[in-house]
Structures are given as C-alpha cells and as structure tokens.
C-alpha cells in the first residue's frame, strides 16, 4: 500500500532534518571556540521503488537521508592577543601536538599555547606542541620533538675579537724609550701615566661569563711610528709562566706605522708575551776570559730579554782602545763598560759593567742561554679574517686549556699580500688622541626574559644579557584529505586511512601557511548562514511532519470504510 510508504518517507525526512539540526546546533554552540571548523551537511534521496502504472513501470522515491557531514576548513578570522605563545595559522596546516605519556600525535588549528611548569609548550589540555631544535643560525636539526625549554639561562660566549679604532695625535711626543719595559705587573700601578701618550679600555668575557678590562696603551716612537702594548689586570692574568711576575698582565706589544701623507695605517706588527723571565736572570753568562779580566769582573744587565737566543756564544775583544764583536753592534767602547745592540728596539740590549778597566787583548765570551719571551708574529700567525691574535687566560685551569685567543682589530687586515684598511680604521691626524669606536664580542650568562615567534615559526629567546638566541622552530602538518580527518574533541583531529599520512614541514613551505604570533584563529562559523539553515531545516521538518499526520488521517479514513 502506498500510504505506508508515504509514512516512512516522512519519517526519513524527520530523521534526516533532525540530524541536520544537530549539526547546525553544534556549529552555533562553537561559534566562539578557538580554531573551530564548522560542519556542513548534504542530503540524498533513497533508492526509489518501482511500481506499475498505466504507462508502464515507473519509480517513486522512498524518502531522504544525510549524504555527508564534513568539516569546512575555510580560514577563520584572527583575534590579536597579548600572549606571544598565542599562535594562528594563516593558510593551510595544523599544529602537531603529542599526548603526554604516549607517542600519539594529534593535530589542531587552535594555537592557544603556553609553557607549563616543566618548560613544555602545551595546549590547555596538556598536549605538547612539536617542532625542531635549531642551531645558532636558526637552521633545524634532527627530527621533530617536544618544544621544551630545558634551560632558562643562556650560556656565556667568550670574547674572540676586540676592536679599538682611535686617532693618535700626530703632534704627540714620545714618553718612553720602550713602552713594554715600563710595565711592572707586581706594582700597585703597573704603568705610570707619564710613560704613554694615550690608552683605551674594552671589556672582554671569559668562557664563564666574567668580565675583564683589556687596555691598550699607545706611545709615539718618532715620525709616523707608534708602539702599543695590550694589557689586562695583572691579578687576572693566570697564564702559566707569567702569573705573578713583572710581566703579568702584559699580553702583547707591537708597532703601528702610519702613512706620512694621509695618516692611514701602512703596517702593524705584533709580538706576544707567552712566558716571562726576569730581565736580570736571563742566563747570560761570561763563560771565559783571557788577559787580565776574570769572569767575575763583569756585571751583566739585560735590557731586552726578547732578543736573547741560544744560537751560540758572542765574543767581545778589546784592542786597547775599542771593543769589537762579530755579532751585534758595540754601542759604548769605554774600557769599563760594553753596551751591545743585538737588534732590539731599545738600542743597548745587553750591558756589561766591568769592575776594572780592560787591557789590550782581553776577550769576553757571552753565552746566551735565556729563552725568547716575546714571540714575534708573522703573516702565518694571522687568523682567517686577517688579524693578529694575542693569548689570554683569565681562568687558569690546571687540567684543561682555558686560554682564549683575542683578535686585535685596529682597522687594517692582511689580505694575503699586504695590509688593507677596513671601512673604519685607526689614524694619525693632527688632532687630540681619541677613541672613535671600541667594542668586543662575547657576552656573559643571561636569564630568559621573553620569547618571540616569527612568521616562519622560529622561537627566539630574549635574555637579560641582551642576546636573542634561536631556540626552536614550530612544525606544521598537512594532509591529502583534510575532510577525512577524525574529530577527537578538544579542538583535536587525528589522521585516518582516508586522510592519508601527515606531511610535516616548516611554516611557509610546501604549501603550508605562515605563523601569526600574538593571534588566535577564531571559529569560522557564520551565524547568519547557520540561522538561514536553521529556518529552512525547521520548515522542512514541519513539512515532513505534515506528511505523517496527513498519511495518518488517510489511514484512518481507510479503516473507517468497514463501518
């Protein structure tokens, strides 16, 4: 009987429209849910029933059913927030999150994240956001893992470069014959201000983050030549063989030669003090004598220890009037004093005071057994950037090497052939000596003060030492079929066989959207659209209910035929 079929067609309409109203209700209920994606529904007719008519076989429908309910992944609007870990995705993609205590991964568009008490970046339900660790350049390392701050302190970075750009007054006078010889690391004031023309100080960091003053002293030699020494506090100089001596704090010395025509740098030299032997204890011995002079007749003074070598003995011969030698130059030829110049910058490097006058034929043989404390640097000792380096040790480790190299930058570098100026360089002009620019890299330990997230997902930490260090990169995932993802509640989705495997990549790559920090994606439910659907669904439900009541009346009339 067709009447019973009509009854069930009406029931199918009521069931389908009731389920549609449930979808509409769910959409409206989540109109303020962060990252919510509304659902859409479609209807389809049921398999038609064949029946005979006067025209032959015909078909009549048996009602309706829901064809499909799927999520609408249109972009939702953004709400700006004051939380740096509130994140939204502009475009395609999901945030992968891991369920605590398992390896199960879920996916969400809701980016209302925060750090928990263990340092993990989590959503409100405690699922941990996934990302990559990064190196110092922000490049990813390894595979995705939990984003977790294991330390809230940035490690210190020791200084590697010190830069001092100065102008040295062309009209300055020389204050000392040898600037390095005026330094005494055992004195309360290692160098007196009367011994140099200008000085400049920068702060450097050791590997533990402590700061130390490194001071460069300048003194004019003559014309366009200046000498300099690089020093630190003698009590902080813990180099083996130097600490506690007069050379403590004296790191390096050298000469700067300027162009006489334009005051720019022509050349720079450097010698490092890597060990120290007292000037009067260099092992210079008078090992043999002839004539009337005995070994004890000479008191030896060494003015420049760096010129001493162990290359062999030096023979001094007195002919009755003058002293002579085949090594070095005799500076004083009196019979009671011999001054020998071995090529040092001060002239007389070794002085012999004789207890009595020499006689013709007297011979003194000097054996130089001392070490060369000053190590002259050559172009082979220049670093990759073209700068001389000096050695310092502010920690003094016994079981491990704690020394650090400091590149000395004054505005000129060796290019493999000659010295070439940097864009900013030390000069010699006829104006007061002044420091134009000075700096040192490195930094001490710092406490984490804040986080920033870039559009490419890079999480950067801001520390109290002024450093901004890359920490992690947030991962995004996409699927071949987003509509086939399974909803798991809590704004979470999980992959299914029909959705395909998650494809994880960096934000802004491989078709994925960018990260919008300090923002949350709102629900994409359109209330106006949902209300229109509600009206049409309600009217459809009313019409289908009429099918049932009218069919019931018709069945009642049929039953009443028997009366």
Q: How would you describe what is shown here?
A:
- With 563 residues, this protein is mainly β.
- It contains two helices and 43 strands.
- The protein folds into four domains: 112 residues, no CATH class; 152 residues, no CATH class; 182 residues, Flagellar hook protein FlgE (Tick-borne Encephalitis virus Glycoprotein, domain 1); 88 residues, no CATH class.
- Strands 7, 8, 11, 12, 13, 35, 36 and 37 form an eight-stranded antiparallel sheet that branches. Strands 15, 16, 17, 18, 19, 20 and 29 form a seven-stranded antiparallel sheet that branches. It has a four-stranded mixed sheet with strand order 30-31-14-34, with no helix packed on it.
- The model has no long low-confidence stretch (mean pLDDT 88).
Offer a concise description of the structure.
The chain has 563 residues and is mainly β. It has two helices and 43 strands. The protein folds into four domains: 112 residues, no CATH class; 152 residues, no CATH class; 182 residues, Flagellar hook protein FlgE (Tick-borne Encephalitis virus Glycoprotein, domain 1), CATH 2.60.98; 88 residues, no CATH class.
